[in-house]
Specification:
Blueprint (H helix, E strand, L loop, with lengths): L11 H4 L18 E6 L3 H5 L1 H11 L5 E6 L6 H5 L5 E7 L2 E7 L2 E6 L5 H7 L6 E4 L20 H8 L7 H14 L5 E5 L6 H13 L6 H8 E2 L3 E4 L7 H11 L7 E3 L4 E5 L15 E3 L3 H25 L4 H4 L3 H15 L11 H12 L8 H5 L6 H14 L8 H11 L17 H11 L3 H9 L7 H4 L2 H16 L1 H9 L3 H11 L1
Parallel strand pairs: 1-2, 1-6, 2-5, 3-10, 6-7, 7-8, 11-12
Antiparallel strand pairs: 3-4, 9-11
Helix pairs in contact: 5-7, 7-8, 11-13, 11-14, 11-16, 11-17, 13-14, 13-22, 17-21, 18-19, 19-21, 21-22
The structure holds 1,4-dihydronicotinamide adenine dinucleotide (NAI) and D-mannonic acid.
Amino acid sequence: MSAVARNPLLGPVSLNRLPEAVQRPAYDRTRLRVGMAHIGVGAFHRCHQAEYTDDLLAKHFDRWGVVGINIRSPDLAGTLGRQAGLYTRLIRENDRAEARVIGSIVSVVDSQASPEPALEVLASSDIDVVTLTITEKGYCHRPASGDLDTAHPDIVHDLSNPHAPRSVPGLIARALELRMSTHGRPLTLVSCDNIPGNGALLQNVVQSITHRRGNGLEDWIAANAAFPSTMVDRIAPATSQADFETVERGFGYRDRAVVTGEPFRQWVLENRFAGRFPRWDEVGVTFVDDVTPFEHLKMRVLNGAQTTLSYLGVLAGHEHTCDDMKDPLLVGFVRRMLLEESLPTLGPVPGISPEAYVEQSLERLRNTAIRHRNHQIATDGSQKIVQRLLNPILERLRRGEAVRLLTLPVAAWMVYLVKASDRFGRQWTVDDPHAARIAAIADRVGSDAPALVREILSIDAIFDRELSANAAFRQAVVAHLEGLLEDPMGHLRHVCGLPLAAQLNHATHTA
Ligand code: NAI
Ligand code: CS2
Protein backbone atom coordinates (compact mmCIF):
# COMPACT_ATOMS: atom_id res chain seq x y z
CA MET A 1 0.00 0.00 0.00
CA SER A 2 1.40 3.42 -0.90
CA ALA A 3 1.87 6.19 1.63
CA VAL A 4 -0.93 8.14 -0.07
CA ALA A 5 -3.44 5.26 0.31
CA ARG A 6 -2.80 5.15 4.08
CA ASN A 7 -3.82 8.76 4.56
CA PRO A 8 -7.05 9.08 6.58
CA LEU A 9 -10.27 10.17 4.85
CA LEU A 10 -11.56 13.59 5.88
CA GLY A 11 -14.38 13.27 8.45
CA PRO A 12 -15.39 14.38 11.96
CA VAL A 13 -12.73 12.16 13.59
CA SER A 14 -9.78 12.90 11.29
CA LEU A 15 -10.72 16.61 11.39
CA ASN A 16 -9.13 17.01 14.80
CA ARG A 17 -5.87 15.49 13.60
CA LEU A 18 -5.30 17.61 10.52
CA PRO A 19 -2.08 19.64 10.32
CA GLU A 20 -2.13 23.12 11.88
CA ALA A 21 -1.91 24.67 8.42
CA VAL A 22 -5.41 23.45 7.54
CA GLN A 23 -8.14 25.79 8.82
CA ARG A 24 -11.14 24.08 10.44
CA PRO A 25 -14.72 25.16 11.22
CA ALA A 26 -14.52 27.53 14.17
CA TYR A 27 -17.82 26.42 15.72
CA ASP A 28 -19.35 23.28 17.20
CA ARG A 29 -20.71 21.38 14.20
CA THR A 30 -22.57 18.90 16.39
CA ARG A 31 -24.93 21.75 17.36
CA LEU A 32 -25.51 22.86 13.75
CA ARG A 33 -29.15 22.72 12.60
CA VAL A 34 -30.45 23.08 9.07
CA GLY A 35 -32.01 26.37 7.90
CA MET A 36 -31.31 26.50 4.19
CA ALA A 37 -31.07 24.34 1.10
CA HIS A 38 -28.86 24.65 -1.95
CA ILE A 39 -29.74 23.22 -5.37
CA GLY A 40 -26.69 22.36 -7.55
CA VAL A 41 -23.86 21.42 -5.21
CA GLY A 42 -21.05 21.90 -7.72
CA ALA A 43 -17.60 23.41 -7.40
CA PHE A 44 -18.86 26.98 -7.17
CA HIS A 45 -21.31 26.59 -4.29
CA ARG A 46 -18.65 24.83 -2.23
CA CYS A 47 -16.16 27.57 -3.07
CA HIS A 48 -18.42 30.53 -2.46
CA GLN A 49 -21.81 30.55 -0.68
CA ALA A 50 -20.86 27.60 1.58
CA GLU A 51 -17.68 29.43 2.60
CA TYR A 52 -19.51 32.68 3.37
CA THR A 53 -21.96 30.63 5.47
CA ASP A 54 -19.04 28.96 7.24
CA ASP A 55 -17.68 32.45 8.00
CA LEU A 56 -21.07 33.50 9.34
CA LEU A 57 -21.44 30.41 11.55
CA ALA A 58 -18.00 31.14 13.03
CA LYS A 59 -18.91 34.76 13.72
CA HIS A 60 -22.53 34.49 14.72
CA PHE A 61 -23.61 30.87 15.25
CA ASP A 62 -27.22 30.29 14.25
CA ARG A 63 -29.46 27.71 12.57
CA TRP A 64 -27.93 28.07 9.09
CA GLY A 65 -26.68 24.61 8.22
CA VAL A 66 -27.11 23.75 4.52
CA VAL A 67 -28.78 20.73 2.93
CA GLY A 68 -27.41 20.28 -0.59
CA ILE A 69 -29.62 18.92 -3.36
CA ASN A 70 -28.51 17.65 -6.76
CA ILE A 71 -31.20 16.83 -9.31
CA ARG A 72 -28.59 16.23 -12.04
CA SER A 73 -25.17 14.57 -11.96
CA PRO A 74 -22.99 14.17 -10.05
CA ASP A 75 -24.32 11.92 -7.29
CA LEU A 76 -22.79 13.55 -4.26
CA ALA A 77 -24.67 12.19 -1.26
CA GLY A 78 -22.25 9.26 -1.04
CA THR A 79 -19.07 11.25 -1.58
CA LEU A 80 -19.87 14.07 0.81
CA GLY A 81 -21.92 11.80 3.08
CA ARG A 82 -18.90 9.62 3.81
CA GLN A 83 -17.15 12.82 4.94
CA ALA A 84 -20.16 14.02 7.01
CA GLY A 85 -20.49 16.98 4.64
CA LEU A 86 -16.92 18.15 5.26
CA TYR A 87 -14.65 19.07 2.35
CA THR A 88 -11.53 21.08 1.64
CA ARG A 89 -11.65 24.43 -0.08
CA LEU A 90 -8.23 25.14 -1.57
CA ILE A 91 -7.27 28.68 -2.47
CA ARG A 92 -4.54 28.70 -5.09
CA GLU A 93 -2.47 31.50 -6.41
CA ASN A 94 0.55 30.71 -8.51
CA ASP A 95 2.70 28.46 -6.25
CA ARG A 96 0.67 29.07 -3.05
CA ALA A 97 -2.06 26.68 -1.82
CA GLU A 98 -4.09 27.36 1.32
CA ALA A 99 -6.44 24.68 2.68
CA ARG A 100 -9.58 25.19 4.73
CA VAL A 101 -12.17 22.61 5.74
CA ILE A 102 -15.69 23.97 5.34
CA GLY A 103 -18.37 22.73 7.73
CA SER A 104 -21.56 24.51 6.67
CA ILE A 105 -22.97 21.68 4.52
CA VAL A 106 -24.76 19.30 6.86
CA SER A 107 -25.93 16.74 4.31
CA VAL A 108 -26.49 16.20 0.59
CA VAL A 109 -29.56 14.68 -1.03
CA ASP A 110 -29.38 13.03 -4.46
CA SER A 111 -32.67 13.58 -6.26
CA GLN A 112 -31.81 12.54 -9.82
CA ALA A 113 -34.10 9.52 -9.97
CA SER A 114 -37.17 11.14 -8.44
CA PRO A 115 -38.12 14.64 -7.23
CA GLU A 116 -39.35 13.31 -3.88
CA PRO A 117 -36.12 13.69 -1.85
CA ALA A 118 -35.67 17.25 -3.14
CA LEU A 119 -39.31 18.17 -2.49
CA GLU A 120 -39.14 16.83 1.04
CA VAL A 121 -36.29 19.22 1.83
CA LEU A 122 -37.62 22.23 -0.06
CA ALA A 123 -41.11 21.95 1.45
CA SER A 124 -39.81 21.50 4.99
CA SER A 125 -40.68 24.20 7.54
CA ASP A 126 -37.03 24.12 8.68
CA ILE A 127 -35.96 25.69 5.38
CA ASP A 128 -36.17 29.49 5.16
CA VAL A 129 -33.76 30.08 2.26
CA VAL A 130 -32.89 28.25 -0.95
CA THR A 131 -29.78 29.17 -2.94
CA LEU A 132 -29.12 27.84 -6.44
CA THR A 133 -26.16 27.27 -8.78
CA ILE A 134 -27.68 25.05 -11.47
CA THR A 135 -25.80 26.50 -14.47
CA GLU A 136 -27.35 28.94 -16.91
CA LYS A 137 -29.33 26.31 -18.78
CA GLY A 138 -30.96 24.96 -15.59
CA TYR A 139 -33.53 27.79 -15.70
CA CYS A 140 -35.04 26.40 -18.94
CA HIS A 141 -35.40 29.94 -20.28
CA ARG A 142 -34.85 31.51 -23.67
CA PRO A 143 -31.64 33.53 -23.14
CA ALA A 144 -32.64 36.32 -25.55
CA SER A 145 -35.78 37.22 -23.56
CA GLY A 146 -35.60 35.49 -20.17
CA ASP A 147 -38.97 33.85 -20.86
CA LEU A 148 -39.67 30.26 -19.88
CA ASP A 149 -38.95 27.96 -22.84
CA THR A 150 -42.28 26.15 -23.02
CA ALA A 151 -40.87 23.88 -25.76
CA HIS A 152 -38.08 22.63 -23.45
CA PRO A 153 -38.68 18.88 -22.98
CA ASP A 154 -38.47 19.12 -19.17
CA ILE A 155 -40.95 22.00 -19.11
CA VAL A 156 -43.31 20.18 -21.46
CA HIS A 157 -43.12 17.27 -19.01
CA ASP A 158 -43.59 19.41 -15.90
CA LEU A 159 -46.60 21.26 -17.28
CA SER A 160 -48.46 17.98 -17.65
CA ASN A 161 -46.94 16.29 -14.55
CA PRO A 162 -46.84 19.09 -11.96
CA HIS A 163 -46.49 16.69 -9.02
CA ALA A 164 -43.42 14.94 -10.45
CA PRO A 165 -41.28 17.76 -11.86
CA ARG A 166 -37.97 17.24 -13.67
CA SER A 167 -36.86 20.86 -14.08
CA VAL A 168 -35.82 23.35 -11.42
CA PRO A 169 -38.68 25.78 -12.26
CA GLY A 170 -41.15 22.87 -11.95
CA LEU A 171 -39.51 21.66 -8.74
CA ILE A 172 -39.69 25.06 -7.09
CA ALA A 173 -43.29 25.58 -8.21
CA ARG A 174 -44.25 22.26 -6.62
CA ALA A 175 -42.25 22.95 -3.43
CA LEU A 176 -43.96 26.32 -3.01
CA GLU A 177 -47.34 24.68 -3.58
CA LEU A 178 -46.56 22.16 -0.82
CA ARG A 179 -45.45 24.93 1.53
CA MET A 180 -48.66 26.88 0.81
CA SER A 181 -50.86 23.86 1.57
CA THR A 182 -48.99 22.81 4.75
CA HIS A 183 -47.17 25.19 7.13
CA GLY A 184 -47.34 28.32 4.95
CA ARG A 185 -43.88 29.59 5.94
CA PRO A 186 -42.26 32.17 3.60
CA LEU A 187 -39.19 31.37 1.49
CA THR A 188 -36.36 33.39 -0.07
CA LEU A 189 -34.88 31.91 -3.25
CA VAL A 190 -31.45 33.21 -4.27
CA SER A 191 -30.19 32.38 -7.74
CA CYS A 192 -26.38 32.52 -7.77
CA ASP A 193 -25.96 31.79 -11.47
CA ASN A 194 -24.41 34.12 -14.03
CA ILE A 195 -27.60 35.10 -15.76
CA PRO A 196 -28.86 38.65 -16.07
CA GLY A 197 -31.37 39.68 -13.40
CA ASN A 198 -31.06 36.17 -12.01
CA GLY A 199 -33.64 36.69 -9.23
CA ALA A 200 -36.23 38.24 -11.53
CA LEU A 201 -35.54 35.55 -14.11
CA LEU A 202 -36.02 32.76 -11.57
CA GLN A 203 -39.25 34.35 -10.38
CA ASN A 204 -40.44 34.67 -13.97
CA VAL A 205 -39.82 31.03 -14.93
CA VAL A 206 -41.43 29.79 -11.71
CA GLN A 207 -44.46 32.06 -12.08
CA SER A 208 -44.86 31.09 -15.74
CA ILE A 209 -45.55 27.62 -14.40
CA THR A 210 -47.60 28.52 -11.34
CA HIS A 211 -49.96 30.94 -13.05
CA ARG A 212 -51.31 27.96 -15.00
CA ARG A 213 -52.26 26.23 -11.75
CA GLY A 214 -55.13 28.58 -10.90
CA ASN A 215 -55.24 27.50 -7.23
CA GLY A 216 -54.16 30.70 -5.52
CA LEU A 217 -50.49 29.70 -5.68
CA GLU A 218 -49.47 32.71 -7.74
CA ASP A 219 -50.91 35.11 -5.15
CA TRP A 220 -49.40 33.11 -2.29
CA ILE A 221 -45.96 33.33 -3.93
CA ALA A 222 -46.34 37.07 -4.48
CA ALA A 223 -47.04 37.51 -0.75
CA ASN A 224 -44.69 34.91 0.73
CA ALA A 225 -41.67 34.35 -1.54
CA ALA A 226 -38.77 36.63 -2.47
CA PHE A 227 -36.37 36.23 -5.37
CA PRO A 228 -33.49 38.68 -4.81
CA SER A 229 -30.97 39.10 -7.63
CA THR A 230 -27.27 38.60 -6.96
CA MET A 231 -23.83 39.16 -8.38
CA VAL A 232 -21.53 36.34 -7.33
CA ASP A 233 -17.85 36.05 -8.13
CA ARG A 234 -14.95 33.70 -7.56
CA ILE A 235 -13.25 31.70 -10.27
CA ALA A 236 -13.66 28.04 -9.29
CA PRO A 237 -12.72 25.65 -12.08
CA ALA A 238 -13.58 21.95 -12.10
CA THR A 239 -11.42 20.12 -9.56
CA SER A 240 -8.37 18.48 -11.14
CA GLN A 241 -6.29 15.47 -10.14
CA ALA A 242 -3.58 17.91 -9.06
CA ASP A 243 -6.00 19.40 -6.51
CA PHE A 244 -6.73 15.99 -4.94
CA GLU A 245 -2.99 15.32 -4.85
CA THR A 246 -2.25 18.68 -3.22
CA VAL A 247 -4.48 17.68 -0.30
CA GLU A 248 -3.07 14.15 -0.06
CA ARG A 249 0.60 14.95 -0.47
CA GLY A 250 0.66 18.49 0.90
CA PHE A 251 -1.65 18.08 3.90
CA GLY A 252 -1.70 14.32 4.51
CA TYR A 253 -5.37 13.32 4.24
CA ARG A 254 -7.81 12.17 1.59
CA ASP A 255 -10.79 14.20 0.43
CA ARG A 256 -12.98 13.16 -2.50
CA ALA A 257 -14.86 16.48 -2.55
CA VAL A 258 -12.01 19.03 -2.77
CA VAL A 259 -12.73 22.30 -4.57
CA THR A 260 -10.30 24.99 -5.70
CA GLY A 261 -10.75 28.71 -6.11
CA GLU A 262 -8.79 31.92 -6.52
CA PRO A 263 -8.25 34.29 -3.55
CA PHE A 264 -10.71 36.91 -4.89
CA ARG A 265 -14.34 36.59 -3.89
CA GLN A 266 -17.31 38.92 -4.07
CA TRP A 267 -21.05 38.70 -3.43
CA VAL A 268 -23.52 41.53 -3.93
CA LEU A 269 -27.09 40.68 -2.97
CA GLU A 270 -30.34 42.52 -3.48
CA ASN A 271 -31.82 43.46 -0.12
CA ARG A 272 -35.20 41.71 -0.59
CA PHE A 273 -36.00 38.80 1.66
CA ALA A 274 -39.06 36.87 2.84
CA GLY A 275 -38.81 35.77 6.46
CA ARG A 276 -35.62 34.76 8.25
CA PHE A 277 -32.40 35.36 6.33
CA PRO A 278 -28.70 34.80 7.10
CA ARG A 279 -26.78 37.98 7.97
CA TRP A 280 -24.17 37.37 5.31
CA ASP A 281 -23.59 41.13 5.33
CA GLU A 282 -21.67 40.56 8.60
CA VAL A 283 -19.08 38.53 6.66
CA GLY A 284 -18.40 40.64 3.61
CA VAL A 285 -21.53 40.30 1.46
CA THR A 286 -22.84 43.65 0.21
CA PHE A 287 -26.61 44.07 0.51
CA VAL A 288 -27.87 46.66 -2.02
CA ASP A 289 -31.15 47.94 -3.44
CA ASP A 290 -30.08 47.36 -7.06
CA VAL A 291 -27.60 44.72 -8.19
CA THR A 292 -27.73 45.67 -11.88
CA PRO A 293 -24.59 47.87 -12.11
CA PHE A 294 -22.49 45.22 -10.32
CA GLU A 295 -23.96 42.44 -12.42
CA HIS A 296 -23.30 44.26 -15.71
CA LEU A 297 -19.74 45.08 -14.69
CA LYS A 298 -18.95 41.49 -13.77
CA MET A 299 -20.65 39.79 -16.70
CA ARG A 300 -19.42 42.21 -19.35
CA VAL A 301 -15.85 42.58 -18.06
CA LEU A 302 -14.69 39.46 -16.20
CA ASN A 303 -17.05 36.97 -17.86
CA GLY A 304 -16.82 38.76 -21.23
CA ALA A 305 -13.03 38.40 -21.08
CA GLN A 306 -13.26 34.73 -20.07
CA THR A 307 -15.66 33.86 -22.88
CA THR A 308 -13.60 35.75 -25.45
CA LEU A 309 -10.36 34.14 -24.32
CA SER A 310 -11.95 30.68 -24.24
CA TYR A 311 -12.95 30.66 -27.91
CA LEU A 312 -9.87 32.47 -29.18
CA GLY A 313 -7.73 30.34 -26.87
CA VAL A 314 -9.06 27.10 -28.35
CA LEU A 315 -8.43 28.43 -31.86
CA ALA A 316 -4.88 29.41 -30.83
CA GLY A 317 -4.27 25.94 -29.36
CA HIS A 318 -4.11 26.97 -25.70
CA GLU A 319 -5.52 24.83 -22.88
CA HIS A 320 -6.33 27.15 -19.98
CA THR A 321 -7.23 30.79 -19.41
CA CYS A 322 -3.83 31.34 -17.78
CA ASP A 323 -2.19 30.05 -20.99
CA ASP A 324 -4.30 32.46 -23.05
CA MET A 325 -3.05 35.24 -20.76
CA LYS A 326 0.53 34.50 -21.77
CA ASP A 327 -0.35 35.22 -25.39
CA PRO A 328 0.20 38.95 -25.97
CA LEU A 329 -2.07 38.97 -29.00
CA LEU A 330 -5.04 37.58 -27.06
CA VAL A 331 -4.41 39.82 -24.05
CA GLY A 332 -4.01 42.88 -26.24
CA PHE A 333 -7.26 42.17 -28.03
CA VAL A 334 -9.26 41.49 -24.88
CA ARG A 335 -8.02 44.60 -23.08
CA ARG A 336 -8.88 46.77 -26.06
CA MET A 337 -12.31 45.18 -26.42
CA LEU A 338 -13.11 45.74 -22.75
CA LEU A 339 -11.81 49.30 -22.60
CA GLU A 340 -13.06 50.55 -25.97
CA GLU A 341 -16.39 48.75 -26.32
CA SER A 342 -17.54 47.01 -23.11
CA LEU A 343 -16.78 49.71 -20.50
CA PRO A 344 -18.64 52.52 -22.29
CA THR A 345 -21.86 50.46 -21.95
CA LEU A 346 -21.58 50.56 -18.15
CA GLY A 347 -23.07 53.17 -15.88
CA PRO A 348 -21.42 54.17 -12.60
CA VAL A 349 -20.81 51.26 -10.23
CA PRO A 350 -20.85 52.27 -6.53
CA GLY A 351 -17.34 52.11 -5.04
CA ILE A 352 -15.66 50.59 -8.11
CA SER A 353 -13.57 52.18 -10.86
CA PRO A 354 -14.38 50.25 -14.05
CA GLU A 355 -10.89 50.80 -15.51
CA ALA A 356 -9.27 49.44 -12.35
CA TYR A 357 -11.74 46.55 -12.44
CA VAL A 358 -10.57 45.66 -15.98
CA GLU A 359 -6.93 45.50 -14.86
CA GLN A 360 -7.83 43.57 -11.71
CA SER A 361 -9.85 41.08 -13.78
CA LEU A 362 -7.01 40.53 -16.25
CA GLU A 363 -4.64 40.04 -13.33
CA ARG A 364 -6.95 37.40 -11.82
CA LEU A 365 -7.03 35.56 -15.14
CA ARG A 366 -3.22 35.34 -15.12
CA ASN A 367 -3.21 33.16 -11.97
CA THR A 368 -1.26 30.10 -13.13
CA ALA A 369 -2.58 27.88 -10.33
CA ILE A 370 -6.17 28.25 -11.58
CA ARG A 371 -6.34 25.64 -14.33
CA HIS A 372 -9.59 26.82 -15.90
CA ARG A 373 -9.93 24.96 -19.18
CA ASN A 374 -11.01 26.96 -22.22
CA HIS A 375 -13.42 24.16 -23.08
CA GLN A 376 -15.09 24.42 -19.66
CA ILE A 377 -15.78 28.12 -20.15
CA ALA A 378 -16.81 27.52 -23.78
CA THR A 379 -19.48 25.05 -22.60
CA ASP A 380 -23.07 26.32 -22.98
CA GLY A 381 -21.91 29.45 -24.79
CA SER A 382 -25.41 29.97 -26.20
CA GLN A 383 -26.54 30.58 -22.61
CA LYS A 384 -23.68 32.96 -21.84
CA ILE A 385 -23.03 35.20 -24.86
CA VAL A 386 -26.25 37.22 -24.45
CA GLN A 387 -25.25 38.78 -21.12
CA ARG A 388 -21.50 38.83 -21.82
CA LEU A 389 -21.43 40.08 -25.44
CA LEU A 390 -24.79 40.51 -27.20
CA ASN A 391 -26.43 42.87 -24.69
CA PRO A 392 -23.54 45.37 -24.76
CA ILE A 393 -23.45 45.05 -28.57
CA LEU A 394 -27.17 45.87 -28.85
CA GLU A 395 -26.83 48.85 -26.52
CA ARG A 396 -23.94 50.20 -28.59
CA LEU A 397 -25.78 49.72 -31.88
CA ARG A 398 -28.77 51.61 -30.50
CA ARG A 399 -26.43 54.51 -29.79
CA GLY A 400 -24.81 54.27 -33.22
CA GLU A 401 -21.49 53.10 -31.77
CA ALA A 402 -18.95 50.71 -33.31
CA VAL A 403 -19.06 47.01 -32.46
CA ARG A 404 -16.05 45.81 -34.41
CA LEU A 405 -14.31 44.30 -31.39
CA LEU A 406 -17.23 42.79 -29.46
CA THR A 407 -18.46 41.00 -32.58
CA LEU A 408 -15.21 39.06 -32.93
CA PRO A 409 -15.84 36.68 -30.00
CA VAL A 410 -19.41 36.20 -31.27
CA ALA A 411 -17.92 34.92 -34.55
CA ALA A 412 -15.34 32.89 -32.60
CA TRP A 413 -18.22 31.24 -30.70
CA MET A 414 -19.74 30.33 -34.07
CA VAL A 415 -16.45 28.86 -35.28
CA TYR A 416 -16.23 26.81 -32.09
CA LEU A 417 -19.75 25.47 -32.61
CA VAL A 418 -19.61 24.74 -36.31
CA LYS A 419 -16.74 22.40 -35.54
CA ALA A 420 -14.32 24.11 -37.85
CA SER A 421 -11.80 22.30 -35.68
CA ASP A 422 -10.73 19.92 -38.45
CA ARG A 423 -9.57 22.92 -40.37
CA PHE A 424 -7.09 23.83 -37.62
CA GLY A 425 -5.89 20.27 -37.02
CA ARG A 426 -7.63 20.02 -33.64
CA GLN A 427 -10.92 18.50 -32.61
CA TRP A 428 -13.18 19.04 -29.67
CA THR A 429 -16.58 18.01 -28.43
CA VAL A 430 -19.08 20.81 -28.22
CA ASP A 431 -21.34 20.87 -25.15
CA ASP A 432 -24.19 23.31 -25.68
CA PRO A 433 -28.01 23.05 -25.79
CA HIS A 434 -27.91 24.47 -29.34
CA ALA A 435 -24.98 22.34 -30.56
CA ALA A 436 -27.06 19.92 -32.64
CA ARG A 437 -29.03 22.67 -34.34
CA ILE A 438 -25.92 24.65 -35.23
CA ALA A 439 -24.07 21.52 -36.40
CA ALA A 440 -27.05 20.80 -38.70
CA ILE A 441 -26.78 24.34 -40.09
CA ALA A 442 -23.08 23.82 -40.74
CA ASP A 443 -23.76 20.50 -42.48
CA ARG A 444 -26.25 22.24 -44.73
CA VAL A 445 -24.34 25.40 -45.66
CA GLY A 446 -20.70 24.36 -45.17
CA SER A 447 -18.21 27.20 -44.68
CA ASP A 448 -20.27 29.85 -46.45
CA ALA A 449 -19.90 32.60 -43.81
CA PRO A 450 -22.87 34.82 -44.86
CA ALA A 451 -25.16 31.77 -44.94
CA LEU A 452 -23.86 30.48 -41.61
CA VAL A 453 -24.40 33.86 -39.99
CA ARG A 454 -27.86 34.27 -41.51
CA GLU A 455 -29.00 30.88 -40.24
CA ILE A 456 -27.40 31.07 -36.79
CA LEU A 457 -28.73 34.59 -36.17
CA SER A 458 -32.21 33.29 -36.93
CA ILE A 459 -32.16 31.27 -33.67
CA ASP A 460 -34.36 33.71 -31.79
CA ALA A 461 -33.93 31.96 -28.43
CA ILE A 462 -30.38 33.40 -28.51
CA PHE A 463 -30.54 36.44 -30.79
CA ASP A 464 -32.95 39.25 -30.09
CA ARG A 465 -34.80 40.08 -33.34
CA GLU A 466 -33.68 43.72 -33.28
CA LEU A 467 -30.08 42.55 -33.08
CA SER A 468 -30.26 39.87 -35.76
CA ALA A 469 -31.97 42.32 -38.12
CA ASN A 470 -29.21 44.92 -37.68
CA ALA A 471 -27.13 45.09 -40.88
CA ALA A 472 -24.02 46.53 -39.18
CA PHE A 473 -24.01 43.69 -36.67
CA ARG A 474 -24.53 41.05 -39.32
CA GLN A 475 -21.78 42.44 -41.57
CA ALA A 476 -19.29 42.64 -38.72
CA VAL A 477 -19.96 39.03 -37.68
CA VAL A 478 -19.70 37.80 -41.30
CA ALA A 479 -16.36 39.59 -41.78
CA HIS A 480 -14.96 38.11 -38.56
CA LEU A 481 -16.29 34.65 -39.35
CA GLU A 482 -14.67 34.71 -42.79
CA GLY A 483 -11.38 35.85 -41.27
CA LEU A 484 -11.44 33.33 -38.44
CA LEU A 485 -12.33 30.42 -40.70
CA GLU A 486 -9.48 31.36 -43.02
CA ASP A 487 -6.72 32.03 -40.47
CA PRO A 488 -7.80 32.75 -36.87
CA MET A 489 -4.61 34.30 -35.53
CA GLY A 490 -3.89 36.15 -38.77
CA HIS A 491 -7.37 37.65 -38.53
CA LEU A 492 -6.83 38.62 -34.90
CA ARG A 493 -3.54 40.34 -35.80
CA HIS A 494 -5.34 42.16 -38.58
CA VAL A 495 -8.10 43.33 -36.20
CA CYS A 496 -5.52 44.46 -33.67
CA GLY A 497 -3.93 46.47 -36.47
CA LEU A 498 -0.49 45.08 -35.77
CA PRO A 499 2.15 46.14 -38.28
CA LEU A 500 3.82 43.27 -40.13
CA ALA A 501 6.96 43.36 -37.94
CA ALA A 502 4.88 42.97 -34.79
CA GLN A 503 2.92 40.16 -36.41
CA LEU A 504 6.12 38.27 -37.19
CA ASN A 505 7.36 38.98 -33.69
CA HIS A 506 4.21 37.57 -32.18
CA ALA A 507 4.40 34.47 -34.36
CA THR A 508 7.97 33.85 -33.13
CA HIS A 509 7.01 34.56 -29.50
CA THR A 510 4.12 32.09 -29.43
CA ALA A 511 5.66 29.40 -31.67
P1 NAI B 1 -20.38 22.34 -11.65
O1 NAI B 1 -20.37 21.67 -12.96
O2 NAI B 1 -19.37 22.00 -10.64
O3 NAI B 1 -21.80 22.09 -10.97
C1 NAI B 1 -22.99 22.28 -11.68
C2 NAI B 1 -24.16 21.98 -10.78
O4 NAI B 1 -25.35 22.32 -11.50
C3 NAI B 1 -24.26 20.50 -10.41
O5 NAI B 1 -24.61 20.40 -9.06
C4 NAI B 1 -25.39 19.97 -11.29
O6 NAI B 1 -26.13 18.94 -10.66
C5 NAI B 1 -26.25 21.22 -11.46
N1 NAI B 1 -27.01 21.23 -12.72
C6 NAI B 1 -26.50 21.20 -13.98
N2 NAI B 1 -27.51 21.26 -14.88
C7 NAI B 1 -28.66 21.33 -14.17
C8 NAI B 1 -30.03 21.40 -14.52
N3 NAI B 1 -30.42 21.41 -15.80
N4 NAI B 1 -30.94 21.46 -13.53
C9 NAI B 1 -30.55 21.43 -12.24
N5 NAI B 1 -29.27 21.36 -11.84
C10 NAI B 1 -28.33 21.32 -12.79
O7 NAI B 1 -20.39 23.90 -11.97
P2 NAI B 1 -20.04 25.11 -10.98
O8 NAI B 1 -18.62 25.46 -11.14
O9 NAI B 1 -20.55 24.81 -9.65
O10 NAI B 1 -20.86 26.29 -11.65
C11 NAI B 1 -22.27 26.28 -11.65
C12 NAI B 1 -22.77 27.65 -12.00
O11 NAI B 1 -22.42 28.56 -10.98
C13 NAI B 1 -22.20 28.26 -13.27
O12 NAI B 1 -22.86 27.79 -14.42
C14 NAI B 1 -22.43 29.73 -13.03
O13 NAI B 1 -23.74 30.11 -13.40
C15 NAI B 1 -22.28 29.86 -11.53
N6 NAI B 1 -20.97 30.41 -11.19
C16 NAI B 1 -19.85 29.62 -11.30
C17 NAI B 1 -18.61 30.15 -11.01
C18 NAI B 1 -17.35 29.35 -11.20
O14 NAI B 1 -16.27 29.96 -11.32
N7 NAI B 1 -17.38 28.02 -11.22
C19 NAI B 1 -18.49 31.52 -10.47
C20 NAI B 1 -19.72 32.29 -10.49
C21 NAI B 1 -20.92 31.72 -10.80
C1 CS2 C 1 -16.92 31.19 -16.27
C2 CS2 C 1 -17.54 31.58 -14.93
O1 CS2 C 1 -17.45 28.97 -16.77
C3 CS2 C 1 -17.72 30.15 -17.00
O2 CS2 C 1 -18.61 30.51 -17.76
O3 CS2 C 1 -16.83 32.32 -17.07
O4 CS2 C 1 -18.02 30.47 -14.24
C4 CS2 C 1 -16.59 32.38 -14.06
O5 CS2 C 1 -15.47 31.61 -13.68
C5 CS2 C 1 -17.25 32.96 -12.84
O6 CS2 C 1 -18.36 33.69 -13.22
C6 CS2 C 1 -16.32 33.78 -11.99
O7 CS2 C 1 -17.03 34.34 -10.93
